[in-house]
Amino acid sequence: MILLDRVTKLYGRTNTALDRVSIHVEPREFVIIVGASGAGKSTLLKLLTKEEKPTSGKIVVGGLDYDKLRDKDIPLVRRKIGVVFQDFKLLPGKNVFENVSFALEIVGYGNREIAHTVPKVLDIVGLKGKEKRMPGELSGGERQRVAIARAVVRQPKILIADEPTGNLDPKYAWEIIKILEKINHYGTTVILTTHNQEIVNKLKRRVITISDGRVVSDRANARYTNEDSK
Amino acid sequence: MTRKKTPKTRQQGNHKMITLGRIIKTGGQNFIRNASLSIAAVAVMIITLSIILFSYIANATFAHTIQQIEDKIDISVYLKDSVTEERRDQLVADIKKMGNIRSVEYVSKERALEEYKAANNDDIDLLLAISQTDNPLFALLRIKPHDVDRIEDIRNYVEKPEIKDLQADDTSYSGDRKEAIDNITKSTRLLQRIGVLGVIVFAVVSVLIILNTIQMAIFNRREELQIMRLLGAGTWYIRGPFIVESILYGIVAAIISVSLCQALLSVPQAALSTSSFGLLDINYANEFFSQRLWSVLALQLLIGIIIGAASSFIATRRYLKFKTSK
Known about the structure:
The structure holds 2 protein chains of 2 kinds. By secondary structure, chain A is an alpha/beta fold. Helix content of chain A is about 35%, strand content about 25%. Chain A has helices spanning about 40-50, 75-80, 95-105, 110-125, 140-150, 170-185, 195-205; strands at about 1-10, 15-25, 30-35, 55-60, 65, 80-85, 160, 190-195, 205-210, 215-220. Chain A starts with a strand and ends in an 11-residue tail after the last strand. Chain B contains 12 helices and 5 strands. Chain B has helices at about 15-35, 35-70, 85-95, 110-120, 125-130, 150-160, 160-165, 175-220, 220-230, 235-270, 280-290, 295-315; strands at about 75-80, 100-105, 140-145, 275, 280. Chains A and B meet through helix 2, helix 3 and helix 4 of A and helix 1 and helix 9 of B.
């Protein structure tokens, strides 16, 4: 599903964000990536969404070799991956329904399908009845749920969640994680980055630890200790 | 959620129509939802489009005034009393043949006297003096050129010895009068050039101001563009609504600027009871404008739409680029 083979990313000539990182993720897996701030987690995700290009190494996602992609194919790749951002990245001029339906509009869904699909997804993330609210009228937890609804509404095979609970109260954080688990249960590969030890330990999933741009551990059913965040 | 097969509708031909409809709808929605930004952009466009419109009308009015002055420029060739009718007709025919001749008018001795009296009808002494002598004036040919710049050619022609022999006096295009005509010609040419240059300068400055305003409006919303990019929206799906929105700015601004111009042109006549500001003949400007109201409106709409669309096209480009550095 996802393959990173000795991927290195340099910013400038000397600043190494990732150093020969190799990761393989199977379909339907739930993988948690942990590491301190600046360890390279966000860079890794940006490489997967084609926001950045690797300096060297190979990336293959869903059978697509990123080296061979042209610029005009990048939107097509992004449509296959759902992304949830720490800062939500909702469209400020659109209401809840429109933010979610936007993801369907860009791939050409008809109005009838949109009217059928979006309410279902909003129901799953617990936003029923809030369709007309603008992002500014929502709490942090609600905004993140809109972002999740938008990421999953196209039923992507891969969902990337970049510290989705980072800006949320603990009570909302666990709700968000439960939604991600549900999505994984339906068959979507989930890649989650987080700082939150409690979440990692409760989930009991595969944990990849990154430190100074290198993979220092990759364990199944792992726990997250203070050592990992150093 | 169970995974469904790709719906058929996504691949069908009406896909493009749905997308186009959505782009237009979103553009209109953004225009209304970002009201403060829209008002600011439209206001700037009204001002700049009005400047273009006013400079265009002023230039046309200016050109009209210049034309009126030039229409008064002619050469009078004074004929000896001995010139026969046949010789005179021959001369008129010859002059007409030389090109650049708008008209050749024969003015008999009697009419010359009447015109002279009419021109001096407030000078009683002069009129009295004239009435006590025989008609002292000569018959004349009044030659009007098409192009006053080439008036010298006409003079050279009538100064030829065989034609000079027929003349009772020097032509009117000599001495002080020649100098005055030459000065008028030179300055009207200069003024025309300044007028055209003015229109071009105002138009260029206006385009730059509008470009800058739309660039700032889009800069304010760059994050929105980047988010759409991250979600996998195609270039035109992102850019389209911005272009539609800018076109709407242009349409609204063009309509308001034409209405504003019409209102402003009628004010000096109604309120100030004046028909001109210096060389600017307001009456003519009003006439020029109202005769061409629809074509002026169409032109303004076209300028507004093109500048709006081009500005937002250029302004969105930088935020839609993909990272290419490794």
